[in-house]
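This is your field. Have a critical look at both lines of this record:
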Amino acid sequence: MAYRLIALFAMIALLFCANGCGKSADKGRGSEVVATIGKYVLMVDDLREEEKYSAVSRYPSGDSRKAKLELLGQIITKKALLQEAQRQDFDKDRAFMRMIERYWEQALLRMLMNRKVAEISSGITVSESEVRSEYEDMSKAAAGKLKPFAEMASDIKDHIRNRKIRDALDTWLAQLKTKTGVTVNRAIFERVRIE
């Protein structure tokens, strides 16, 4: 259990280490040093960034000085634990590295897919005639027992739009796989057992 807790804190460290590790104090208020925690230098901008993800920001105590002290205490605890985990080489553990790799892959995939869906969505239109045609098809299938067109038009339009987005995304993915080039060793694949 302690190993999992430390590994979790180490993973969090990698995510937040980019926000402040090795920063030097340059000009500007956001680059002033708030605290030094072992090897970590906490800058004003880092404190503000940490505040966005902190429970302190979501559940303010009403006393801003107390909230800032609570936030600083959380950061100090986290950074001390992370540095101890690094001293014990948890950040070099193969299982930890695989966990980080999976997180990194998921984050990249999410970003790519969100961007592609937004790109595809911006080019998708649904005409009134498409909505009417879909309504008529639904009405035939339901033997005319549907709500009036005016009540359903918006939902039908959304449905058609989502279907067009899905179809465009499927087409893009198929093209991407072809462009990437995929070769599967069938003999080895068939021997692999997945349980």
Observations:
- Strands lie at 33-37, 40-43.
